[in-house]
Amino acid sequence: IYEILSVLHDVSDEVECFRFRRKNHMWEKWIRYGGIYPDYENRLFRAKKGRWFDRKVHSNIRVDGVYNILESHIIHYGMPSISKQVKNLDRYTNYEAQQYFEEGQKPSWIKEFIYPIGFFFYRYFYLKGFLDGWHGIFLALYASFYYHLSRAKLRELYHLKNSCE
Fold first, then answer.
1. What are 21's strand-pairing partners?
2. What is the pLDDT of residue 162?
3. What are phi and psi of 24, to 5 degrees?
4. Are 130 and 136 in contact (CB under 8 A)?
5. Cis (ω within 30 of 0) for the bond into 116?
6. What is the enclosing helix (H) or strand (E) of 153?
7. Are 158 and 55 in contact (CB under 8 A)?
8. Per-residue model confidence as pLDDT tens for the chain (165 residues)
9. How far apart are CA 112 and CA 153, in angstroms?
10. Based on CB atoms within 10 Å of each CB, which residue in 54, 58, 139, 156 is the most buried?
11. Rounded Cα gap, residues 76 and 24, in angstroms
């Protein structure tokens, strides 16, 4: 709180937003690798400069101008159990597929099958998810399957649309 008060007291007119780094925890372990940290969140912004990027999943605040990153962190305990993640998986991938569909994206075998494999290797090896141990492999597999399932559900939406016409 002290950091927020001090930066707001002396903020330049050109700064339109302050970002926090979010520390995501899985079963109370801080996940540092695999693209999970730093997970920047725009939280303090000038009212006329920020706009809500509204999505059913992972909505966020967008600011096009200058921003500062605060030293303080947001602590996020969004992954308390595998069961919660699996419950979220079905709902969130439904939302993602619907979003792709509404944007006019088409089903693609490459995006449905090849990208998830590449995504796993990218997160687990290139972004060093392996340094988070078991948590890192779980999250890399989860993210890969999440992407695959979203794209498979997009294919399903097109199939249902075409079978109803």
1. 40, 73
2. 77
3. -85, 135
4. yes
5. no
6. helix 134-164
7. no
8. 667 777 777 777 777 788 889 999 998 899 999 999 998 888 877 777 777 776 666 667 777 777 777 888 889 998 889 998 899 999 999 999 999 999 999 999 999 999 999 999 999 999 999 999 999 999 999 999 999 999 999 999 999 887 776
9. 10
10. 139
11. 5
Three-class secondary structure of residue 50 per DSSP:
coil
- The tokens of 123 are what? 């997160």
Residue at token pair 């302050």: 18
Residue type, 132: D
How far does the chain reach from its first CA to its final CA, in angstroms? Answer: 57
Give the residue among 40, 42, 46, 43 at the shortest CA–CA distance from 12. Answer: 46
Q: Which of 36, 52, 44, 48 is nearest to 17 (CA)?
A: 44
Angle at which helices 134-164 and 82-102 cross, to 10°: 40
| Residue 124: burial class (beta carbons within 10 Å; 0-12, 13-18, 19+) | buried
Residue 41 β-bridge partners:
20
Phi then psi for 154, rounded to 5 degrees? -65, -45
Supply the pLDDT for residue 17. 82
Contact assessment for residue 73 and residue 24, using Cβ atoms and an 8 Å cutoff: no
Q: Decide: pTM greater than 0.70.
A: yes
